[in-house]
Amino acid sequence: MPAIENIYALILAGGSGTRFWPLSRNARPKQLLDLFGDGTLLEQTIRRLEGLVPLENILILTNAQQIQGVREIATMLPPENIFSEPAKRDTAPAVALGIGLIAARNPDALMMVLPADQLIQDTVAYHSVMRDALAAALKSNGLVTIGIKPTWPCPSYGYIERGGRANIPGLQCEHSPVEVTRFREKPNPELAEKFLAQGNFSWNAGMFVWSLPTVIKQLTSHAPQLSNFISELRRSNDIPATVAAQFPKLTPISIDYALMEKADRVLNIEATFDWDDVGSWISVAKYLDQTGNDNRSNEPITEIGSEKNIVFNARPGSRITLLGVHDLIIVQTEDAILIANRHQADAIKKLSAVLPPALL
Fold first, then answer.
1. What pLDDT score does 52 carry?
2. Alpha-carbon distance 96 to 90, whole Å?
3. How far apart are alpha carbons 133 and 139 in whole angstroms?
4. Residue 148 φ then ψ, to 5°
5. Which residues of the chain have pLDDT under 70?
6. Domains of the chain: which residue ranges?
7. Closest CA to 111 of 148, 58, 157
8. Which has the closest alpha carbon to 314: 65, 19, 33?
9. Which of 34, 100, 197, 294 gets the highest tally of CB atoms within 10 A of its CB?
10. What's the chain's average pLDDT?
11. Reported pTM
12. Under 8 Å between Cβ of 61 and 69
């Protein structure tokens, strides 16, 4: 295990608040919600790093709309570790910004890149996998990805095609990394079925581990605009001013397109911990209490002749009652109520195009 003081984590905490409306809003997206009664997803992400990464080495990158909410949650971190992007530029520029900020502190650091909005409950297994990923990143010249073993042919995730076991001299670990053959874009349902049947594909969870010298070398070869930006940050005497001036000029592109699909060596470790990207109210329902005939709710409800409904009540002191209704999603907040067909959960985000701005 590498020295803990050399390990850093960049938590990406941006995104929109459209899939979980009306509970989520532009200033309070999924990662800032307490959906499961165990703290927000962002808070859980930070807590999960205890024992892996010192608090002073955890950085959060968000945006101007959400930075206040992030600061209210991440009070355990130094305030200077929470940064706001001056413009929306997708994940590659965001990751490059994180690399530059960490390189200015410790140019030889090991770095994890982690989304803020995933539910992972088995912390012991998570630590085991991430320690092995850190060791693999330290002892190899590769960029390490964490993959999720598919449980169904999901067409909404990117996939990682896994090759043979990686040869890394001196590496001793429980979770052996393999070489990545290639990244595959979100497939159609038929192709996803083939991936699942083939058995050597992982879901791409957007979790990466690497050493700074390795990732900067790869960016220099494959994404020079981003490596030049990192160099400017490392030389800067006024990092906020440099970010404000240079970040908006970066080309919007995902980290997969910009780097991972082109890098000389990418390794994959398949997770043994539980994982849920909590993509919709359907995902949340799995963790809510069951009432009657498969109604799911975060608070007590009264129901007669109703089944397969999802109810989330964020208005203390109120009571939601159901009579003869089926397959609904009902979400109540102080200023809005959503009533939707549960089979259209993924379409809830479309409401943002027609809602009054005050409700976004």
1. 97
2. 11
3. 10
4. -110, 125
5. 1
6. 4-270, 281-359
7. 58
8. 33
9. 100
10. 96
11. 0.95
12. no
CB atoms near residue 194 (< 10 Å): 11
Helix (H) or strand (E) holding 74, with range, is none
What H or E segment, with its residue span, contains residue 274?
A: none
Residue 191: per-residue pLDDT:
94
Q: What does the alpha-carbon distance between residue 33 and residue 114 come to, in Å, rounded to a whole number?
A: 17
What secondary structure does DSSP assign to 155-181, as a single string?
Answer: TTS-EEEEEEEP--TT---SS--EEEE
* Model pLDDT for residues 178-191, shown as the tens digit of each residue: 999 999 989 999 99
Q: Using alpha carbons, list the distances in angstroms from residue 270 to 11, 56, 112, 204, 347.
A: 20, 28, 16, 10, 31
Q: Residue 1's pLDDT is what?
A: 67
pLDDT of residue 16: 78
CA atoms of 173 and 140, how far apart (whole Å): 13
Query: Token pair for residue 246?
Result: 């240079």
pLDDT tens sequence across 104-158? 999 999 999 999 999 999 999 999 999 999 999 999 999 999 999 999 999 989 9
Report the SS3 class of residue 147: strand
Task: Tell me how far apart the alpha carbons of residues 179 and 157 are, in angstroms, rounded to a whole number.
Answer: 20
Sign, CA torsion 189/194/197/201: negative
The CATH number corresponding to 4-270 among 3.90.226.10, 3.60.21.10, 3.40.50.300, 3.90.550.10 equals 3.90.550.10
Question: Is the CA virtual torsion 138, 140, 145, 148 positive or negative?
Answer: negative
Q: Tell me the C-alpha distance between 156 and 176, whole Å.
A: 27
Do residues 57 and 16 make contact, with C-beta atoms less than 8 angstroms apart?
A: no
pLDDT value of position 37: 87
Residues in the chain, overall count: 360
List C-alpha distances in Å: 10 to 13, 99, 134, 159.
9, 8, 14, 22
**How far apart, in whole angstroms, are the C-alpha atoms of residue 360 and residue 358?**
6
**How far, CA to CA in Å, does 201 sit from each of 162, 179, 239, 254?**
6, 12, 40, 20
Q: Which pLDDT value is given to residue 82? A: 98
Give pLDDT, residue 329.
98
* pLDDT at res. 15: 80
**In angstroms, how far is the first alpha carbon of the chain from the final one?**
45
- Cis peptide bond upstream of 22, omega within 30: yes
